[in-house]
Design brief:
Organism: Paraburkholderia sediminicola
Shape: globular
Oligomer: single chain
Helix content: 25-40%
Distance between the termini: 20 Å
Family: Belongs to the NipSnap family.
Structural class: alpha+beta
Number of domains: 2
Order of helices and strands: EHEEHEEHEEHE
Radius of gyration: 17 Å
Number of helices: 4
Protein name: NIPSNAP domain-containing protein
Strand content: 25-35%
CATH class of the largest domain: Alpha Beta
Pfam families: NIPSNAP
CATH topology of the largest domain: Alpha-Beta Plaits
Length: about 200
């Protein structure tokens, strides 16, 4: 499965307008892809909205990207005075496609910038570790970038930030996380917390 992660950033007082404009764009008949989720930032750059969509193949994703680039007001970003960043990803091959549903009040987005040649070992490490790790908490998706700097982005839902800390600490103490051989493949990592919007399919 292929994914697009779009980040819209504007003044925090414009957040409601940014969300409304983006939802209008996503609902338009010409917009392709499946809308999976929308979130607002809780740390990092405030006034930001992230939108996740899935596509059946790379061609559909590429066509939608070209349409957005030529659109006069993609995601309503011109009207709401946003900056816009669109990233293309492919899902890790052993993971099921993302399906909407209610999974948590908070979503953690983690991005790891990979060393050269680090993607294949990373996928292998995650595939070995996830059967046991997924018993502790669910993973929304892990995906690798098709553009820009080699990197992966994974998304985790949580009911609370205390739950996040407790489960991650216990998984580390039990030796099941992080994936063995995984951390050696990246040189920088970021983690940010986001909250689903009212109409987000993923909640």
């Amino acid at each position: 499965m292929f994914y697009e992660l779009t980040t819209l950033s504007s003044h925090i007082l414009k957040l409601a307008q940014v969300i409304a404009n983006a939802e209008g764009y996503l609902a338009h008949a010409e917009t392709t892809g499946r809308w999976l989720g929308a979130w607002t930032s809780e740390n990092g750059r405030l006034g930001s909205v992230r939108i996740l969509r899935s596509f059946t193949d790379e061609e559909e994703l590429a066509q939608e990207r070209v349409r957005a680039l030529h659109h006069a007001d993609p995601f309503g970003a011109f009207d709401s005075e946003c900056t816009i960043e669109m990233e293309s990803y492919a899902g890790f091959p052993f993971l099921a496609p993302v399906e909407p549903g209610s999974f948590g009040k908070y979503y953690e987005f983690r991005t790891y910038w990979l060393r050269p040649g680090g993607l294949a070992p990373t996928i292998k490490a995650w595939e070995a570790a996830m059967p046991e790790r997924s018993k502790r908490s669910s993973l929304t998706v892990n995906m690798y970038a098709l553009d820009g700097i080699p990197r992966i982005t994974h998304i985790w839902p949580w009911e609370s930030l205390d739950e996040r800390i407790a489960i991650r600490a216990k998984s580390f103490a039990d030796g099941i996380w992080p994936p063995k051989g995984g951390p050696e493949q990246f040189y920088e990592a970021t983690s940010t917390i986001w909250m689903p919007t009212v109409k987000s399919p993923l909640r």
